[in-house]
Amino acid sequence: MSPTAPQPRGRGARSNATGRYEAQTREAFDDDWTCDDEAPPPLRTEVSVERARRIISHNDSPDVGFSASINPYRGCEHGCIYCYARPSHAYMGLSPGLDFESRIFVKPEAAHLLEKELSKPSYRPEPIHIGGNTDPYQPQERTRRITRGLLEVLVRFRHPFSVITKSALVVRDLDLLSEAAALNLARVAVSLTTLDRRLARSMEPRAATPAKRLDAITRLATAGVPVTVMFAPAIPGLNDHEMEAVLERAAAAGASGAGYVLLRLPLEIKDLFREWLETDQPDRARRVMSLVRQMRGGKDYDMAWGRRMRGEGPIADLLSARFKAARRRCGLDRGWPPADLSRFRVPLQAGGQLDLFG
Predict the structure, then answer these.
(1) Strand 227-234 to strand 257-262: parallel, antiparallel, or no bridges (unpaired)?
(2) Is 207 helix (H, G, I), strand (E, B) or coil?
(3) What is the rounded distance in angstroms from the CA atom of residue 161 to the CA atom of residue 164?
(4) Which of 109, 178, 208, 330 is the S-S candidate for 223 at Cβ 3.0 to 4.6 Å?
(5) Which residues, 6+ apart, have CB-to-CB distance to 321 below 8 Å?
(6) How big is the CA angle at 226 (ends 223 and 227), to the nearest 5 degrees?
(7) What is the Cα–Cα distance from 141 to 108, expressed in whole angstroms?
(8) DSSP for 226-264?
């Protein structure tokens, strides 16, 4: 699909190029047979069940902030054009473009698998991050309730966890989140990329509006849940000027921590993001990409640990200094005590043997 072809409404990617592992490639294009004012048919979301053997994933990246994570969904209907998880759809033989946001894989056995893993005698607790790859509160969660099932297990096992989302649906689970937070077991991060509703609608077409995310922060904080606002991604020349305003509004809403991540464009994302820029922000496209390269050593992306999240060079240094100053000024640098690992316990199963010395 060329950038000038009609785009499916409510979707972020402008194309659906074949994944990098496929032997044959395909690419849709505008053959001029479609009238300029003729809207394309809606792109329906297809949902498939993924039968996972294990649900906890581990990583050894020094700049991620967690080593254990759970992703109840593969692909994400939010359709964020910048999403660093898009290339993972190529492993499924699908496109990181429109397929990523319309071909969703769900893990209905996630809670059962988690309970099995936590119950193993060899298991040693460590904080588990939910949603490190794709959003655990994307639209499918409204009816699937897979993330809620995971939280129910974690609360029952008194297991520490964190959640990251850009969905207001997270407040549905305030009962579980507040119970865990009262025991110093839960943290929530809300991603707030912009306060500009029009930009958010184009860049994150099916995510909650900025106002709803701010309201979610307020409701979480009021319920006693520690909340971090994530200004992610910071895109030079597009939304970076909003950094201070985002942190100020989040602090006023009740957030007590803040973080940021520089725009990341690995693999297919660089082409998808450029397509989006050229159609949605044509007057800024060249400048945005120029600034990105100035922060990435002259390339679209630098995957080196220690640089991939923050970039390098004068512009990256200035962004970092601005963030630290704004975080301090807004009182978002107080930090929290480490999550309490000592509360972890395997609940007694029905008919199970009581511990003689418990």
Answers:
(1) parallel
(2) coil
(3) 10
(4) 178
(5) none
(6) 105
(7) 11
(8) -EEEEEEEE-TTTTGGGHHHHHHHHHHHT--EEEEEE--
Which two three-digit tokens encode residue 289?
Answer: 């990409």
Contact (CB, 8 A) for 332 and 255: yes
**Residue 284: exposed, middle, or buried by beta-carbon count in 10 A (0-12, 13-18, 19+)?**
middle
Which residues, at least 6 apart from 236, have a Cβ–Cβ distance to it below 8 Å?
263, 288, 291, 292, 294, 295, 315, 319
Residue 354's SS3 state is: coil
CATH hierarchy code of domain 46-335:
3.80.30.30
Sorted by where each begins, the domain ranges of the chain are: 46-335
Let me know how long the chain is.
358
Q: Cβ distance 104 to 45 under 8 Å?
A: yes
> 37-74: per-residue pLDDT in tens?
555 677 899 999 999 999 999 988 887 888 999 999 99
Say if CB 79 and CB 10 are below 8 A apart. yes
CA 196 to chain centre: 19
Residue 241: count other Cβ atoms within 10 Å of its Cβ.
10
Picking from 110-124, 276-290, 294-308, which range would have the lowest pLDDT averaged per residue? 294-308
DSSP-based three-state secondary structure for 84? coil
Long-range contacts of 174-181 (CB under 8 A, 24+ apart): 174/219, 174/220, 174/223, 174/225, 176/148, 176/151, 176/152, 177/151, 177/220, 177/223, 177/225, 178/223, 178/224, 178/225, 179/155, 180/151, 180/154, 180/155, 181/223, 181/224, 181/225, 181/226
Q: Comparing C-alpha atoms, which of 122, 126, 148, 125 is closest to residue 137?
A: 148
Asked whether the beta carbons of 190 and 229 are under 8 A apart, the reply is yes
Could you tell me how far CA 290 lies from the centroid of its own chain? 25
pLDDT digits over 221-268, tens only?
Answer: 999 999 999 999 999 999 999 999 999 999 999 999 999 999 999 999
User: E strands along the chain, which residues?
Assistant: 46-49, 57-58, 68-70, 73-74, 103-106, 128-130, 161-165, 186-191, 227-234, 257-262
Q: Find the helix or strand (DSSP H, E) in which 154 lies.
A: helix 146-156
Tokens of 258: 């803040």
Instruction: Evaluate if pTM is beyond 0.70.
Output: yes
Helix, strand, or coil here: 95? Answer: coil
